[in-house]
Amino acid sequence: MYSPQKNQNGICTLAFATSTEVFHISPISHGAPCTGRRNLAHILDGSLSILAGFGMTRLALHLHHQWGLPVQGIDLSTLLAKESLMQIRAAQKVNTSLLDESHLTCLSKLFLNVELLEVQRPTQMDMQFDGVAAGKDGRLIMQNTRYKTRVRKSANTSIIMETSHGQQVVGHAVHAEGKRTGVHVIGGFCGTVQRIRVVGREPLTHAELACEEFILLLLQGVLPSLTRSPYICMFWFSGERAQQRGCSPLLAKSLGPCFSHINTSQRQVVAAMLSQDGDPLVIVHGPPETGKTTTIAAALDFWMAERKPTWIIAQSNVGIKNVARTLVKYDIDFRLLVSKEFYVEWHEDLYTVIGGCLVRSHKLFGDPVSAERKIGSSSIILCTISMLLNPAIDNCRIFRLVPVERLVVDEASQIDTLEFMQLPPHGKDTTPDMKTVYDFKQFKAAAYFLNTQYRMPVPLHQENLPG
User: Fold this and answer.
1) Distance (Å, rounded) from C-alpha 282 to C-alpha 295?
2) Which of 35, 45, 36 is nearest to 70 (CA)?
3) Distances 425 to 149, 256, 283, 284 between C-alpha atoms, Å
4) Is 0.70 surpassed by the pTM of this model?
5) What residues does 380 pair with on adjacent strands?
């Protein structure tokens, strides 16, 4: 067991347990007596006994970062419940010795940001609901009011319902579809439900789970070194040596007639995106209404004609939906993947203009034939970053149909770069070391800026002038 603390860059509490005893260890500094460090080293490297725990990926990184000692242990979440001791001993181990010191330092800092964010998440929330009715099998059916405050199916949380008679009823969300959540309650109650609270933390998202699995496989030696990926090297292991942008590439490719109107700064960006010899990473920023989405559409129009597979992702469903609407306007063939959870009964009206380009992702899962039929001849796929990282997407073999050869990230300022490897970017006051792609010093000089603003909003001082 360990505990991160907001104002400390490391572990503040550490405990080990056997089947009969629990040992608490006070923080040991790098300069601690040799005996204490030697004893701790024997525990962490597994030479004294089997070191095992849930979340061993994070444990190993934090323990190594705190004390500079090698850690080797077994992640219990990767094993079946009834594994024997012999099977546990033979299980694949997390081992910090498999990675370079600089890689371990990088990963431990990124995961510390994750943990500091998790500490700030509320463990109790009042939910908005329109009513509660009796359902089948003794369940209660709760009608949620808002998508953002809906009660999700979760084994990690408890549902506390308070009735008009002052009674508290405890339950668990066992089913959720559309605006309805099925709650299994313990015991009966009388009166009407006046208040509903959710106690506990929600399960990890697909993006967070993908990140955990990626680091786990690295520490188990299943995946090669981080530096085998040019993309990862470019962000985390190139130092802060500024990358200067050379001469702006010329737009040698002819764009479709719909994009003849784009301005000079937009043309430079499109040329950089289409260039075969330019930088593998093109960073673009600009104020609202400077045509960022139109610029994306211009590049996609060319890639569509050339049958170049491309994925476009964003942090939010609303953000990626806005991109889709622009592509519809320019008659670009694409498929937008939307989760059933977000779409059904909540946001169906948002997608009416998208029509046949919409694919509800649950209809793809587990059926490669269905995936091929739904994707059709399109070589352009839109989705959220969480959808892209959903293992079910990989299982339906969609990446064989449309490989991720080109990746366009909208709303990039909302995504911390670990979420590309993957982490939500909110909470920079809590985790000031978090970085979006725009925070890396080596990329700032090479970034493109869209300098022409269209559809300027009404100045605030004119909004309330009498007509």
Assistant:
1) 12
2) 45
3) 20, 36, 18, 18
4) yes
5) 310
- Distance CA(331)–CA(257), nearest Å, equals 12
R_g over Cα of the chain? 26
Residues forming beta bridges with residue 314, ordered by sequence position: 384
CA dihedral 365, 370, 371, 376 (to 10 degrees): -160
Give CA separation, 21 vs 15, 63, 390, 418, in Å: 11, 21, 40, 37
CA atoms of 419 and 93, how far apart (whole Å) = 25
Question: How many Cβ atoms sit within 10 Å of the Cβ of residue 374?
Answer: 20
Residue count of the chain: 467
Question: Is the per-residue pLDDT at 369 higher than 50?
Answer: yes
Q: Using an 8 Å Cβ cutoff, are 214 and 99 in contact?
A: no
Residues 6+ apart with CB under 8 A from 395: 365, 366
Question: Using one digit for the tens of pLDDT, what is the confidence trace for 178-202?
Answer: 999 999 988 777 888 999 999 998 7
* Tens-place pLDDT, residues 52-85: 888 888 889 888 888 888 999 998 888 866 666 7
Paired tokens of 310: 């491309």
